[in-house]
Amino acid sequence: MRWWGVLVVGLLLIMALPTLGGSSQAAGSAAVFAVGKGINLDGWFVHSNPIPEIWQSGVGSADLRLLRTLGITFVRFPVEPQAFIAAGGGLDRTNLPYLDAAIALILRGGLNVVLDIHPDADYQKSVLLGGAPLTRYLRFISALAGHLVGHDPHRLALEPMNEPFNPQTGACDASSSWDWNPLQQRLWRAARRAAPRLTLVVTGPCWSGADQLPQVTALPDPNLIYTFHFYTPMLFTHQGATWAGDPFPYLSGVPYPATAARVNKMLPQLLAGIADPTTRGDVEAQLQQYGADGWDKNLLREHLQTAVDWGKAHHLRLFLGEFGVYKPHAPVRDRYTWVRHVREIAEGAGVGWAMWEYNKDFGLLDDAGNPDTCMITALGLRQPTHGTARC
Fold it and tell me: 236 with 295: CB under 8 angstroms?
């Protein structure tokens, strides 16, 4: 509870301020929100935690000081929207002060904010299918954007929806008639009318995959950032992830970089723990193909290049909004290597990034809650002490 006093004071100050829906952002001039080196603050305003009890899982001033010390310049702040949407759309004024206080805390801590509206899958599906849920969501995005205009647009940006997906099939199906572009354009218009100078973060379909950006119709707005996420190859980054479906819960010790020899070395022990012969055969085939593909930095670059080339062709600003490795089952040093490779590729292409995430199972902190010095090195950040990490 070390942060409770700070947050209470912040809440009282914010509730005493005039409404942020004023027009301090004049139309016609494009602010530039800079995405440099960032981190996702997952687990604070997500997973349907009750409000105000949500503060019990909060990030405090000490966390923000640490991030600044490391050289982090901004945070991507995921927020599940349901608690902040009024019944007919618009903003729930009962819960809104808690969100305001969190944003104020981060900004006072010297970090800029990408406010990522991050619905859970069931609610997001209802919105993407259209009808009344979409109407309410559009009203919410408009009201939220208008509420944020009192902030310095160089320090705060709004991402109207995280990782859209095909609500009809739940799959990345090229043959589907579903088109994300019309809905994204409606979200953009709703936010832009309310906040002419607020930087908006837009994305591609199919969970914002890097290869999906070419499916986006570029919008006539100079103050946009186009984001994509990168977890390729998922056999490595999501090994052991029970929520991701087969074969991921069965995977452990999958190496990166991948060679046939490295995969064949770990396969017998892994396969011995899979009782079902069909599943065992599927896992073996996928991992053997993974080894044969030879996943390394060059292959990662090829897969990221689709997004980079599209951005350059359209003269657009790009943002690698999520990348990371689920750490409970990944080889420790290989995880650092993958993160370093992706970060170096992004920086070499002039693309800002935000790692997924700060203090959970993909985290920058270790299992004891301390800064992971080897991950800090992989991200090219400053060590919090004068010691040298042995990685």
Answer: yes
Q: Is the distance from CB of 170 to CB of 124 less than 8 angstroms? A: no
DSSP state of 160: S
Which segments of the chain are extended strands (E)? 37-40, 74-79, 112-117, 156-159, 199-203, 224-230, 317-323, 352-355
18 within some domain = no
- Has residue 220 been placed in a domain? yes
Residue at 274 is within a domain: no
- The mean pLDDT of 110-138, rounded to a whole number, is 97
Q: How many residues does the chain have?
A: 391
Please name which of 125, 122, 111 lies closest in space to residue 76, comparing C-alpha atoms: 111
371 domain-assigned: yes
CATH value at residue 185:
3.20.20.80
Average pLDDT over every residue of 326-333: 97
* Burial class, 125, CB count within 10 angstroms (exposed 0-12 / middle 13-18 / buried 19+): middle
Please give the tally of structural domains in the chain: 1
Q: How confident is the model at residue 275 (pLDDT cuts 50, 70, 90)?
A: very high
SS3 271: helix
3-state secondary structure of 382: coil
In the predicted model, what is the mean pLDDT of residues 236-258? 97
Question: Which two three-digit tokens encode residue 367?
Answer: 């299992």
pLDDT of residue 226: 98
For residue 45, the cross-strand partners are: 79
Q: What is the mean pLDDT of the chain?
A: 90
Interval 337-373: pLDDT, tens: 999 999 999 999 999 999 999 999 999 999 899 999 9
Give the domain range for residue 112.
4-9+35-170+177-255+297-378
Torsion of CA 77, 189, 34, 310, to 10 degrees: 110
pLDDT (tens digit per residue) in 366-385: 989 999 999 999 999 999 98
Q: Which two tokens stand for residue 270?
A: 């892994």
Q: How confident is residue 388, by pLDDT bands cut at 50, 70 and 90? A: low
Quote the pLDDT of residue 56. Answer: 58
Cis peptide before 247 (omega within 30 of 0): yes
- Give yes or no for a contact between 40 and 75, defined as CB atoms under 8 angstroms apart: yes
Distances from the Cα of 247 to the Cα of 178, 241, 280, 303, 375, angstroms:
27, 9, 9, 22, 27
Peptide bond into 233 cis (omega under 30): yes
